[in-house]
Amino acid sequence: MRLVSLRSFQIPAIFSSGSRLMAQSAGSSGGKRLVQVDISSDTVCPWCFVGKKNLDKAIASSQDQYDFKIKWHPFFLNPSAPKEGVNKKEFYTNKFGSRSEQIVTRMTEIFKGLGMDYDMSGLTGNTLDSHRLLYLAGQQGLEEQHKLAEELFIGYFTQGKYIGDRQVQIFLL
């Protein structure tokens, strides 16, 4: 996969607003029912990561009864976010004001409950390239796409990585 191809790639607009999770069940070979899940998410949305972790737990506890097909779709919480990135803490303070401390405290608690540390260091910004990577990973297989979503979330939320950085993207490939 060449990163040069990412510059001209356009993601089709699938959903206009709000994040959505849609699931559909159908019969599949092998006696298990197939559950198809479509996830619309932004790669800088902490609740999307929490939802993914809970979905993964549900899948693990029922994979003997069901087969799962999970497909990620782009959603942009802040489509006009700068490409070069801005300090994550400052962004939260500017966006949420005095509530930012409460939000960070709550997310820290939620992440601890999932066995992870919530890291507010690093930059945040435009997520278009991370969605491009997810799309391209999906072309390799939906399991690859799901694994990459996990890596993007872990990098951003627990390691302070700026997922808009080309070097981080190359590392994740």
UniProtKB/TrEMBL annotation:
<dbReference type="GO" id="GO:0016491">
    <property type="term" value="F:oxidoreductase activity"/>
</dbReference>
<dbReference type="InterPro" id="IPR036249">
    <property type="entry name" value="Thioredoxin-like_sf"/>
</dbReference>
<dbReference type="InterPro" id="IPR001853">
    <property type="entry name" value="DSBA-like_thioredoxin_dom"/>
</dbReference>
<protein>
    <recommendedName>
        <fullName>DSBA-like thioredoxin domain-containing protein</fullName>
    </recommendedName>
</protein>
<feature type="domain" description="DSBA-like thioredoxin">
    <location>
        <begin position="36"/>
        <end position="168"/>
    </location>
</feature>
<dbReference type="Pfam" id="PF01323">
    <property type="entry name" value="DSBA"/>
</dbReference>
